[in-house]
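note to self: the first set is below, dont mix up w the second
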Amino acid sequence: MSSVAEYIKESYIELTEKVTWPTWRELQSSAVLVLVAALIIALMIFGMDWIIGYVLKWFYSSLA
């Protein structure tokens, strides 16, 4: 049981003294970057879905 307590103590020390936390400004810029990347990826997936849907609609209408 003491090993668990030691682990928690060492983890707390590492998180409070050894970790370099980002500043509020760095955090905001990272969040904006993630948002922009997610929107670009979503638009790419939407575009691919639309193109595949269009091709399949054209293909099935040409069979009739």
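second set (the one i keep forgetting abt)
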Amino acid sequence: MTNVENKAGYAKLSFWERNKLSGGYLLKKIVGERAVSIIRFILLFGMCFLIIQPILNKISVSFMTEKDLYNPIVVSIPEHFTTGNYRLAAELMNFKQAAINSLLVSFTIALLQIAMCTIVGYGFARFEFPLKKFWFACVILVILIPPQTIASSLHLHFRYFDILGIFKLLTGDTINLRGSKLPYYFMSAGCMGLKNGLYIYMIRQYFRNIPGDLEEAAYVDGCGTFKTFLRIMLPQAKPILTSCFLFAFVWQWTDGFYSRMFLGNTKLVSTALSRIVDSLGAYIQRINGVKTTISVAYSNCILSTGTLMIIVPLIVLYLFAQRAFVESISSTGIKM
């Protein structure tokens, strides 16, 4: 009999007959594969549950009345379902105005940061210049050093803002930029904004992974450096630019440090959320006419509701851009 006939005859046998012929190896193999699959599913499910479970708790609490918060029978499913917490949280945060302001600030800041970091990252990836390693070490320091360590310096610099003493020479005094958006836009334009060092590093790594033959071909065809950057390199870098833009937008949307320091006079969702418990106390006092102590459970309920209202737009944004986000993350940091 030929090998083809042997294989055809073997395929017609039942599972137990084939297992007997293999000396029990076939059964052991299938049981091992199924066991590995089950263990993998349990581990992945457990990890996903650990990540999602706090959000599920916040969703459950946000639909509970104050009675349900103290009811020992109620665990995850509200007994008295209500959407009043969302209306109250929106009123306390002035959510509509704060969301519009946050959208404008986050979008413009993220766009400015990515534009400047792209130019810097491309320069580190493709060009040689004096003290290149030193300046890149400075970029790493920007990533490692917490911004709180330079908070006092930033405050004094923009409180008494001057350029080479020109303003003081002409007007007799420095300029106070505190309370305006200009300081933060200046810092973002100078690649010293929120997480700018990380964006420079990611973009630099991505550009280093792009073959240099593309640029050389463009130079041979008569393209200059600037035209090659715009026509050849930027289209190739769309995934990493999308990811960095998402990072910049999300971190700016939820930022509290820079927002309070530079944008304190602008109503933003991040600063409104940080004051929502105090706003709740003032709201209840205004209704009752007397100062009332707010329970910790109800305060956390309103805080959880406000948190969900802030992260929902970010989840929607990620769903639309997840393909480019995952592609860029998988392609960044391979070549050092």
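remember for set 2: Residues 25-62 form the longest helix (38 residues).
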